[in-house]
Design goal:
The chain contains 13 helices and six strands. It is α+β, with helices and mostly antiparallel strands. The longest helix has 25 residues.
Length: 294
């Protein structure tokens, strides 16, 4: 086999960008990796000597394949059992220091992006995250530039109205994460309730594969008692909590035998956890085993 380096192959050179594009489009690591595989096949079936701008060609291919995948996936998500959450993705601590990059891959932002149509999502990401011009996006999506401008404005307005704004102080997040893990591990109801905002909501994604709350839980008492009840079950014996960077922010993994069986991501406002997302669907934890994005 020929050893092809990133300098020789534009696909390898831009692979991280292509994965980041597909993941933000789809919210799932598995689908993003499938898109990369399809893109690689298309790229190597193409007469590359005719491609003047390989990076643009590859981003266009990933975007359109993701758009097709997302459109077909929407019907499946409408019938999903319980709340649908994005797949958690391991990231490096460095990505958390790049505020804009961390924000666009955060679980909270991915949830907002779910409220856009597939085309709006593609246009928003290409314009606001990756900095493509309206003309370049029009060429990528094969739509008139005025149409792209209208979609971009509509998507940006939609996201801005729903975009979460939370505390980003690293020291505070480290402290709250440590307290959260200690309260859950120790079964300390009062300590856990003290960490939760008065209007806290918990979403739990089991996808019908494992037992999970099928409706969002509201309020510190309800959320805390449910969480401690989960950790008190025999099936949770031996579970250890550990901190990890997930989607650009410090979060918490629930590990059993050294393997992640659940992932907590959360937003912090005024020193308390406001939104708590608990991903336990085993089919959506594969991103915890991939190389960290960053």
């Amino acid at each position: 086999m020929v050893d092809v380096t990133a300098q020789q192959d534009p696909f390898l050179e831009h692979r991280r960008l292509l994965f980041a594009t597909a993941y933000r489009m789809l919210g799932t690591v598995t689908d993003a990796e499938d898109i990369l595989q399809d893109t690689w096949l298309k790229w190597h079936d193409t007469d590359q000597s005719t491609v003047r701008h390989p990076k643009s060609y590859l981003v266009r291919t990933v975007t359109n394949l993701s758009l097709n995948r997302l459109t077909s996936a929407q019907a499946t998500r409408e019938n999903y059992v319980g709340p649908w959450l994005p797949e958690p993705l391991r990231t490096t601590p460095n990505i958390a220091e790049e505020t804009e990059l961390a924000d666009t891959v955060s679980t909270a932002m991915l949830v907002v992006l779910e409220t856009l149509s597939p085309v709006e999502r593609a246009v928003f990401l290409l314009r606001e995250v990756f900095g493509y011009t309206h003309a370049e996006i029009a060429d990528t999506l094969d739509r008139p530039e005025p149409t792209i401008r209208q979609i971009a404005h509509r998507a940006r307005t939609h996201v801005q109205a729903r975009r979460p704004r939370f505390d980003t102080d690293k020291a505070e997040r480290d402290h709250i994460t440590a307290r959260f893990m200690a309260a859950c591990s120790g079964g300390d109801l009062n300590a856990l309730m003290d960490l939760l905002a008065p209007d806290v909501t918990l979403w739990n994604d089991g996808g019908g594969v494992v037992t999970a709350a099928r409706r969002p839980l509201h309020g510190p008492d309800h959320v805390a008692r449910w969480l401690l009840g989960v950790f008190a079950k025999p099936v949770s014996a031996g579970v250890e909590l550990e901190s990890a960077y997930l989607n650009g922010e410090l979060g918490t993994l629930a590990c059993q035998g050294g393997n992640p069986g659940g992932a907590f991501t959360y937003d912090i406002a005024d020193g308390r956890i406001k939104n708590l997302r608990f991903q336990v669907n085993p089919n959506k934890l594969k991103g915890l085993y991939t190389e960290p994005l960053g």
